[in-house]
Amino acid sequence: MLDGLPPVMWFIRRQVRRHRSHRLSVPQYRTLCLLDRMPNASLSEVADHLGATLPTASRMVSNLVTKGLAERKPCLDDRRQMSLQLTAKGRRAYEGAQQETQQSLATEVANLTDAQRATIAEAMALLGDLFTASDPSIRR
């Protein structure tokens, strides 16, 4: 996995950069991914997801809010905190970038045999299940 996954992740990063709608950086796209999976995420959850500091995550979220892709709302559980959500514009940007990247991945794997694609799909499902089960904070 340590040898095979990095080239795949670099390919995905290049595709996200190439198809940037709304001029999203890869970390901004990853933040939109998190907000899609975790509506009402906190700034701390964004920072943890990105492996970034709170000030870095705060600047990134501020940029997304300025672009109208995300919004801050008062947290229902703790009035001192804000929760983050995708806006309709943010959802469109996220879904567009995701669709374009998935299409690029599909084009790449189209040259594989049906059996090879089935093997990859099975392996990805197994890995997703394994790591989701071992860390409940991971959501697909």
Keywords:
single chain; 140 residues; mainly alpha; 2 domains; two-stranded antiparallel sheet; 6 helices; globular
Blueprint (SSEs and pairs):
Blueprint: H1 5-18, H2 26-37, H3 43-50, H4 54-66, E1 70-74, E2 82-86, H5 88-109, H6 114-134
Helix pairs in contact: 1-5, 2-5, 3-4
In helices, the fraction of residues equals: 55-70%
CATH class category of the largest domain: Mainly Alpha
Shape: globular
Number of E-type strands: 2
How many domains would you count in the coordinates?
2
Computed over alpha carbons, the radius of gyration is 17 Å
> What's the oligomerization state?
single chain
Short summary of the structure?
The chain has 140 residues and is mainly alpha-helical. The protein folds into two domains: 5-109, Winged helix-like DNA-binding domain superfamily/Winged helix DNA-binding domain (Arc Repressor Mutant, subunit A); 112-140.
Task: Write up what this structure looks like.
- The chain is mostly helical.
- It has two domains: about 5-110, Winged helix-like DNA-binding domain superfamily/Winged helix DNA-binding domain (Arc Repressor Mutant, subunit A, Orthogonal Bundle); about 110-140.
- The chain has helices spanning about 5-20, 25-35, 45-50, 55-65, 90-110, 115-135; strands spanning about 70-75, 80-85.
- Strands 1-2 form a two-stranded antiparallel sheet.
- The protein is globular, with a radius of gyration of 17 Å.
